[in-house]
């Protein structure tokens, strides 16, 4: 009964504030299996707190697994949106800034067998133990870790982590490496890797979470397949952008400028350049995440993406540590393991949702106007999708579709694998997809044979374009 009341109150207020958020989508979120478990736990916790058997809990300290934290204020039942799906954060859900680092999550450099990859945020989480220090983590662990430290809404966390598991991990266990291939990841804990191949990890080139024109990593084909190692010279270029466009801070304007320069340089130098959706969207999102997540405080609410915070999360150690060295555009850097700033750092107060992230991607895209696609075998440029929406809500739906469209066509030859992928996406992505008011129009993909494949590939073409299979830098490209 309480859950029904929460849903009714929440859906009604959501519809008024965000007309594109559908009741069907909210109902899907509330019926998610993880949501049901978390609702029950929160209810029991609330009853225990009222009776004095359980201490009251600050909602911002939770793992953020479902909206629906129930509180009784002045005798009125009130639904508070906790940062699970992070769709409509309220002041009640996040009571001020939370300070880091936390003593129960000490920094520890990675060991020789620990995976680290191209994402400084995930590397930081592993180095502090918010996700397994091995760098081998499940979708759920990544979602919880990103929420705990960066206040990433679970709609966004699920989208990014699920995409990584689909294209670079083990779909059945939802486990993946945050770096490159690892024998500990794969069906039956890697026992079948000799037969099926070892998953690439999130560093798998051109698939989902990795792409060319990175802020601080070289392109896969420009560095003998190494798209993981931090490049001090590229961070120096980003530092110069901060001085030129951000008054010394790594502001949104500074990172957009850095992206424009990196895109142009990467495309000019890389004969196998690949910048296509969905990976291109993730790359541009990673630029927005620099001020969006690493700022000391909330971007746009007196939060500052200052030198101390950004260098710590990137592991960029300046060679000159004198007080005014940061003003030097020629400041040189070395690399150390990524960590939460030692001097103290405050995470953003409200969860970053898919809508905000896609809005940031759109801002980066419209500033730089990069061509979407990739280098073709004849030295030409193969175009990606023809019509990319120019508003955050429509682009969010387009981005969800691009994930479905990024399936390799080989999946249609393996019924069990296709079924696993579709079921996984249905439980992990469709709730957020519906909550954004997106029309679920992707074709049925659980059958085999030419009819299913042709239907699916024709539909997918509008979301990935021909660049997916015809651009030589694509993870799906095969020589004719």
Automatic annotation (TrEMBL):
Residues 103-359 form the Heme haloperoxidase family profile domain. The keyword Cytoplasm does not apply. Its cofactor is heme b. GO terms for molecular function: metal ion binding; peroxidase activity. It holds the Pfam family Peroxidase_2. SUPFAM superfamilies: Cloroperoxidase (SSF47571). Residues 1-17 form the signal peptide. Keywords: Heme, Iron, Metal-binding, Oxidoreductase, Peroxidase, Signal. Belongs to the chloroperoxidase family. This is Heme haloperoxidase family profile domain-containing protein. It comes from Sporormia fimetaria CBS 119925.
């Amino acid at each position: 009964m309480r859950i029904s009341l929460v849903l009714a109150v929440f859906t009604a207020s959501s519809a008024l504030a965000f007309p594109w958020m559908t009741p069907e989508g909210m109902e899907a979120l509330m019926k998610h299996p993880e949501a049901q478990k978390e609702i029950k736990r929160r209810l029991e916790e609330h009853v225990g707190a009222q009776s004095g058997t359980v201490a009251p809990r600050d909602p911002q300290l939770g793992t953020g697994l479902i909206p629906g934290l129930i509180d009784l204020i002045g005798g009125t039942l009130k639904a508070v949106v906790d940062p699970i799906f992070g769709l409509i954060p309220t002041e009640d859900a996040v009571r001020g800034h939370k300070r880091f680092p936390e003593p129960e999550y000490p920094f520890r450099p990675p060991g020789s067998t620990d995976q680290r990859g191209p994402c400084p945020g995930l590397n930081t989480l592993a180095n502090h133990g918010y996700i397994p220090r091995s760098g081998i983590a499940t979708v759920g662990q990544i979602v919880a870790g990103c929420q705990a430290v960066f206040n990433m809404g679970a709609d966004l966390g699920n989208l990014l982590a699920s995409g990584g598991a689909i294209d670079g991990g083990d779909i059945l266990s939802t486990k993946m490496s945050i770096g490159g291939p690892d024998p500990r990841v794969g069906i039956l804990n890697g026992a079948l890797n000799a037969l099926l191949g070892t998953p690439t990890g999130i560093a798998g080139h051109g698939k989902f979470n990795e792409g060319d024109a990175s802020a601080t990593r070289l392109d896969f084909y420009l560095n003998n397949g190494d798209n993981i190692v931090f490049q001090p010279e590229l961070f120096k270029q980003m530092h110069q952008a901060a001085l030129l466009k951000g008054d010394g801070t790594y502001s949104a304007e500074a990172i957009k400028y850095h992206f424009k320069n990196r895109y142009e340089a990467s495309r000019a130098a890389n004969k196998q350049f690949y910048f296509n959706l969905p990976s291109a969207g993730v790359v541009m999102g990673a630029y927005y995440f620099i001020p969006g997540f690493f700022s000391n405080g909330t971007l746009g609410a007196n939060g500052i993406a200052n030198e101390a915070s950004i260098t710590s999360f990137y592991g960029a150690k300046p060679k000159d540590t004198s007080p005014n060295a940061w003003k030097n555009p020629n400041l040189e850097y070395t690399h150390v393991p990524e960590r939460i700033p030692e001097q103290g750092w405050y995470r953003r107060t409200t969860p970053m949702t898919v809508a905000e992230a896609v809005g940031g991607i759109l801002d980066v895209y419209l500033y730089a106007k990069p061509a979407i696609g990739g280098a073709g075998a004849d030295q030409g440029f193969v175009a990606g999708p023809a019509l990319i929406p120019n508003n955050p809500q429509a682009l969010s739906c387009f981005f969800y579709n691009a994930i479905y469209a990024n399936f390799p066509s080989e999946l249609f030859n393996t019924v069990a694998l296709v079924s696993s992928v579709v079921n996984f996406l249905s439980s992990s992505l469709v709730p957020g997809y519906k909550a954004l008011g997106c029309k679920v129009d992707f074709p049925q993909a659980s059958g085999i044979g030419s009819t299913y494949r042709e239907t699916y590939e024709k539909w997918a073409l509008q979301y990935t374009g021909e660049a997916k299979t015809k651009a030589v830098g694509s993870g799906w490209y095969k020589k004719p």
